[in-house]
Specification:
The protein is α+β, with helices and mostly antiparallel strands. It is built from seven helices and 18 strands. The radius of gyration is 43 Å and the shape is elongated. It starts with a helix and ends with a strand.
């Protein structure tokens, strides 16, 4: 009997008894049987059923990644990202209603507000205000020191971390530093509030809150001395004086054997570091060393 015919009928499970007997006598029967038994161990992978080719094609095209196109799109996407960021910065800078102005150490600047009020900002200070609808809401935040010449109009508020200053139209100075809050009125009327301490200041009045202690005093100055490049202090701890020296000269000052709470009355100019150090140290019986252009040591009498 034809071997190929027997094999075909065996695969189709269509052998008669005589044909099956003849097929088992073939010399490669055992080999064929092993192939079939091994094949039974394999399982088909799990795939999604696709109705037809067009459905499969549509699904494939929807999922496949256009590799070649990415090489062209990649630089375009980078450009688009840059443009998006640039427009974001542009609209933030040019269309944002918030305005923040900072000064560096040894720097002062003058700002004119939308109502023509003027601010002179001292070194290492920050103001922040909303220019949109400024005439209806004249409020700004201050961290540092600034001299204000407020144009007449609606209430003008200066908010600091240690107190609030409210005026209508006047000239005044606000200083807010570490544990130190001071308001000096040079013209008009100023209302100051810090916690439960509320005062109304007239020209020449000074409101001071130093390390939680409230002090009222007078000033004969008509403008802040620092706007004329001179710092003046009235019975302030020397650590406050040294901190101001650092701000005005952009230096770091180390103190050796110095009582930082010792009170200092006097001042220094902003245009000569040696002269400024002499003005501070000599009245206090201290000495100083200029180590480098931005490093100074102040020594007590035992050094």
């Amino acid at each position: 009997m034809d071997k190929e015919l027997l094999l075909q009928k065996w695969l189709n499970n269509d052998l008669t008894e005589a044909e099956e007997k003849a097929f088992k006598q073939l010399d490669d029967y055992a080999f064929n049987e092993e192939i079939i038994e091994t094949a039974k161990l394999f399982k088909a992978s799990v795939f999604s059923n696709v109705d037809d080719f067009e459905t499969f094609k549509a699904q494939y095209n929807a999922q496949k990644v256009p590799v070649k196109k990415l090489h062209w799109l990649s630089p375009m996407l980078k450009i688009a990202s840059i443009l998006v960021i640039s427009f974001g910065v542009y609209f933030t800078v040019f269309f944002s209603p918030n305005t923040e102005i900072k000064t560096l150490a040894s720097q002062k600047t003058t700002i004119e507000l939308p109502d023509q009020s003027q601010i002179v900002l001292n070194a290492l200070s920050v103001i922040n205000y909303n220019k949109k609808g400024w005439d209806d809401n004249r409020t700004l935040k201050l961290d540092g020191e600034a001299y204000f010449k407020v144009a007449k109009g609606k209430t003008f508020d200066v908010i600091t971390s240690q107190g609030k200053v409210t005026v209508v139209g006047t000239q005044f100075n606000v200083k807010q530093r570490d544990n130190y809050f001071e308001v000096k009125c040079f013209e008009g009327v100023v209302k100051v509030k810090s916690d439960t301490i509320i005062r109304q200041l007239l020209a020449g009045d000074t409101y001071r809150l130093l390390e939680g202690k409230f002090i009222e005093s007078k000033t004969i100055s008509t403008t802040p001395e620092w706007t004329k490049n001179t710092c003046v202090f009235d019975a302030l701890p020397i650590k406050q004086v040294i901190a101001e020296l650092e701000r005005q000269y952009n230096v770091k000052v180390a103190s050796n054997n110095v009582d930082n709470n010792r009170l200092f009355t006097g001042g220094f100019t902003h245009n000569n570091l040696n002269e400024a150090l002499i003005s501070i140290t000599q009245p206090m019986n201290l000495t100083y060393e200029i180590i480098s252009s931005n490093q100074v040591i102040i020594n007590g009498k035992n050094n």
